[in-house]
From TrEMBL:
It catalyses: a primary alcohol + NAD(+) = an aldehyde + NADH + H(+); S-(hydroxymethyl)glutathione + NAD(+) = S-formylglutathione + NADH + H(+); a secondary alcohol + NAD(+) = a ketone + NADH + H(+); S-(hydroxymethyl)glutathione + NADP(+) = S-formylglutathione + NADPH + H(+). Residues 27-155 form the Alcohol dehydrogenase-like N-terminal domain. Gene3D superfamilies: Medium-chain alcohol dehydrogenases, catalytic domain (3.90.180.10), NAD(P)-binding Rossmann-like Domain (3.40.50.720). It comes from Thiobacillus denitrificans. Keywords: Metal-binding, NAD, Oxidoreductase, Zinc. It holds the Pfam family ADH_zinc_N. GO terms for biological process: formaldehyde catabolic process. Its cofactor is Zn(2+). This is Glutathione-dependent formaldehyde dehydrogenase. One of its GO terms (cellular component) is cytosol.
Amino acid sequence: MKARAAVAWEAQKPLSIEEVDVEGPREGEVLLQVVASGVCHTDAFTLSGDDPEGAFPCILGHEGGCIVVECGPGVKTLKPGDHVIPLYIPECGHCEYCASPKTNLCQSIASTVWTGYMPDGTRRFSKNGKPIFHYMGCSTFAEYTVVPEIALAKINPAAPLDKVCLLGCGVTTGIGAVLNTARVEPGSTVAVFGLGGIGLSAIQGAVMAKAGRILAIDLNSDKFEMAKALGATDFINPREVNGSISEYIRDLTKGGVDYSFECIGNVNVMRDALECTHMGWGVSTVIGVAGAGKEICTRPFNLVVGRTWKGSAFGGVKGRSQLPGYVDNYLAGKIELDKLVTHTMPLEDINRAFDLMHEGKSIRSVIIF
Ligand code: NAD
Ligand code: AHE
Ligand code: ZN
Ligand code: ZN
């Protein structure tokens, strides 16, 4: 079939709106109508050319709200009309990762999905016979896409897809990192570096965990208003701090924060985020994605004295079994999504969503098909 899609022909070039060919679903796959898709910083990261796994041409997008159109052979748990959120981390239910309660990183199809192919090593999108890569197994910047059944969370059809699409990445990642990865306890002091969709959602998670004090840190002071509305208690612009931000935060909090979260993808900030935590028990969680060749460093002593460095992907959430509960919590008013959607636009305007993100003017733009 034909579908309108935003094609990334090469890195660092604007997306191009094209009519592409989409091949139907094969064994274990599902054809989806994409109703809405959020735009995440990771899409911009891959488009920048800094992603070592970025393959071009591709169709980006991984924060989708979708409806099942057609199921391929062997699909047992979904039917046309079901509402679903695509998962860049699937849940096969059988691999050793799915069997472990310690991780959500199902590896059943990782080797193909992260390099732009379907699990069987082929592709579904093309233009004039030229194949186009999938992205993170999702490719939601297209009217129609094909996703494996094991990478689809079936959700309550009452949920508005133009809002719960944010649970396909940003909001779940931020909340889950706090609740599942760091496991913040009531009364804790928490520092969140970077107040985009991820950092603001980490603030939501910290409020859910009943943190006592939540420090919101960003170079763009315009982000503080939303951080405050979501429950942050202290606001720090590093540009207004003389000297080291980690020392400043350790002084402000009498020794350091209990938990910190890096939601930017900057390895220098990752170091600050670790070093602003309290000696003896501080835990810092890396969420931001850093470019090819970047490495983190700190004095090993900072770990010897009891700090812990962790990382989190999709908030540690096992998508098929746990994401539907996030949707229900949104419907019950326990998760904020509406405020985070600062802009909506048709697919034709998708490059504006990237501009707004780079200019620091949006939290989340949602593409409505
Ligand atoms: P965003 O662009 O919306 O927000 C980033 C924020 O960081 C902005 O407000 C910006 O002003 C701020 N910032 C930039 N440099 C800063 C600095 N030096 N100090 C303080 N603040 C600074 O991005 P987002 O969509 O929220 O994504 C954030 C990061 O999380 C990205 O790296 C993204 O790739 C990554 N991410 C990771 C996962 C995961 O599962 N680990 C999931 C989603 C996104
Ligand atoms: N391709 C990058 C890594 C990108 C990355 O870390 N992706 C996150 C999700 S970001 C969503 O916005 C993730 O979940 N990764 C898990 C995995 O298995 O890759 C690189 O550096 O190679
Ligand atoms: Zn994302
Ligand atoms: Zn698995």
